[in-house]
Design a protein that fits this description.
Layout (H helix, E strand, L loop, with lengths): L2 H9 L7 E4 L8 H16 L21 E4 L14 H27 L4 H13 L26 E2 L5 E3 L2 E4 L5 E9 L2 E7 L4 E8 L1 E2 L6 E2 L6 E4 L4 E7 L2 E2 L3 E3 L5 E3 L2
Parallel strand pairs: 1-2
Antiparallel strand pairs: 3-4, 4-12, 5-11, 6-7, 6-10, 7-8, 8-12, 9-11, 12-13, 14-15
Length: 258
């Protein structure tokens, strides 16, 4: 018998021995039962193919050798790899940069471009939310006036209603209001104040003016100063007509004669 035939016959030798190593796991099975199942499975693969199937070529996958089978129980699932977040991180960074750039643009626009569309829009919102101040239409006779000079200064009132004095002192408006005009002529200042919609006063001959047009004037805060070198006059008007129906009390306060 040739070596080729001997080798072929060896291939047909059934498997009867098998080393089995069992590791404890969730599924418990007797070692002998496992051994028998493995041996039977190997021997079945070595049998001739059934029903019209072609025989396997000589020396192909029918070699049964001793095997060591290790049972490690149910395999644990492989840990899931974390998903790549590279592109997500890039998108978040790009969005953050875009927001910062937008905020910087708005800030710089508000600072350096007063009439920008954004500034105009916000000014419109503020204008709509801020209610307009109610017009003060009170008559002058309804107001209680104070003194236009400091204590101790002598004042005179003419028949036409012009109040005059010559002294070094601070000068006040007779009633609070809004400064409409400040003018300077020959080194002396004139201040015009609107108290109500119809009542105004004009002070002329001031050495210094402490207010400007648009400022709010208060009867307790000086609007100017006279150094006493020239006369200062105070005239009060009702709808443009000079008011003369008043006098002064001992404190130089203005008192209406109506």
């Amino acid at each position: 018998m040739s070596e080729t035939i001997d080798y072929a016959e060896m291939l047909e030798i059934p498997v009867s021995t098998l080393n089995v190593t069992k590791k404890k796991g969730k599924r418990r099975r007797a070692a002998e039962d496992l051994k028998e199942q493995v041996v039977e499975s190997v021997n079945e693969r070595l049998e001739a193919p059934a029903g019209g199937e072609e025989a396997q070529p000589f020396g192909e996958a029918r070699i049964a050798e001793g095997e060591n089978v290790v049972d490690y129980g149910a395999p644990e699932p492989a840990p899931e790899k974390p998903r790549a977040r590279f592109f997500e991180g890039k998108v978040l960074i790009a969005e953050f940069i875009a927001v910062c750039a937008l905020c910087a643009t708005i800030l710089l626009t508000n600072l350096f471009w007063e009439n920008s569309a954004i500034n105009t829009f916000f000014r419109g919102l503020v204008a709509e939310e801020t209610p307009a101040a109610a017009e003060d239409d009170r008559a002058y006779s309804e107001l209680t006036l104070g003194s236009v000079v400091s204590d101790g200064v002598t004042c005179a009132v003419s028949d036409t209603g012009e109040l005059t004095f010559t002294a070094a002192c601070s000068v006040y408006v007779p009633y609070g209001g809004t400064v409409q005009r400040v003018a300077e002529e020959n080194g002396l200042y004139t201040v015009e104040v609107e108290h109500t919609s119809s009542f105004t006063s004009v002070i002329t001959g001031l050495t210094y003016a402490y207010v400007a047009a648009g400022d709010e004037a208060f009867s307790t805060i000086p609007v100017g100063y006279s150094d006493g070198s020239s006369a200062v006059s105070v005239s009060m008007y009702d709808a443009g007509s000079l008011i003369s129906a008043y006098s002064l009390d001992e404190n130089n306060d203005i008192v209406w004669n109506v």
